[in-house]
Amino acid sequence: MTPAARLLRFPMPNDRLRGLIKKELPALRELRRDLHRHPELSYQEQRTSGVVQRELAALGIDFKAGLAGTGVVAHLPATRKGGQTVALRADMDALPIQEATGAAYSSGTPGVMHACGHDGHTTMLLGAARVLSRLGKRPNPVTLIFQPAEEGGAGADRMCRQGALRGARRGGVGAPVRRIYGLHGWPPLPLGVVATRPGPLLAATDEIDIEIRGFGGHAAYPHLCRDPVVAAAHVITALQTLASRAVSPLDSVVCTIGIIEGGSANNIIPDSVRLTGTVRTLREGTRTHARERLMLICRQTAAAHGCRAVVKWSEGYPVTRNDPAEADRVLTVARDALGKDRVQVPEHATMGGEDFSYYGAHVPACFFFLGLRPPGPRHFPNLHTPEFDFNDDALPTGVEMLCRLALRP
Fold this sequence. Notes:
This protein has helices spanning 3-8, 15-37, 46-59, 118-134, 155-161, 228-239, 241-244, 284-304, 324-338, 357-360, 395-407; strands at residues 62-67, 71-76, 86-91, 142-147, 179-190, 194-195, 199-202, 204-213, 217-218, 253-262, 268-269, 272-281, 308-317, 320-322, 343-344, 365-373. It is of the alpha/beta class. The longest helix is centred in the first third of the chain and has 23 residues, at 15-37.
């Protein structure tokens, strides 16, 4: 018996829902692998959007395409009056990574792959659409949001600004959304485990670009130069004091320099060096303080070495902050459906980021993690690596959670 089959046998009420999910699993597995084989980068998800539209049309579900370029918003009406519209969201884009999974359905596009599981997210939401459309009773209207460009393109922000949550009269479909849920496949968690917490779950993701400008020359005569390489090295080291000295040990901040560019030869001191990185925080006050301190550290450290720092801070995604009542709803639904041993409440947020945060600025929202790691001691690749592949055995739990959240009064 496969892990997916064992998950479906977990004792719980409403066996019909699980029966419907089980019937859809073979088709959903093939759909997920088809999406994996045809990855598309942010705002280029033309084929993926077309697959979503084809699936929705086959189910007779009303939808609107073209939001944020390739986004799709669909709507299933309630079967009775009185419920508030629940939204469920999936992201569709892939990453610029060369796949190394060796899977038979590996990416057919060189240098592009689904290394973050968005193929699984899209499939689970289409699975929820299939199951919900077949139910005779739906107490709540359900809006299905398939968005582009989560991977740095802020597709969620564009979807919100173009009316995805506002209903048919203001750019979307159906009635205005009153609450929204999203999920992410999570390799560190055991297969089929659901985890979330009230308040911050993921960090704000700001970007930094620092140019250290000096005065170059011959490497044999550094005293005649203003060496931006040495200044840049000291800037990188000094920036680590954002975490160790500028912020409370009980707070959270990460400053990482991921790119260092400069120089043309081993015997030439260059005129400038460029540093590119990210700053992650969980509180708005910490975010503001980190920005101010970073500017000061860069400029004064560079000046101490006779150089000048030109710093650009670009605001990224806000903190993904779960509404406490909606986080409680997700945890309650998960415990009722899956059992307490398959539900976790993380003590701390993670410093990754998510543009699901934009939805939470408009309506009560909750984002949760879905475990992907199979049982046993073997290594399971992490997100954003060439070896990562979404675990199809997690599909039934993801579809079930989305359905139950849509049906919850």
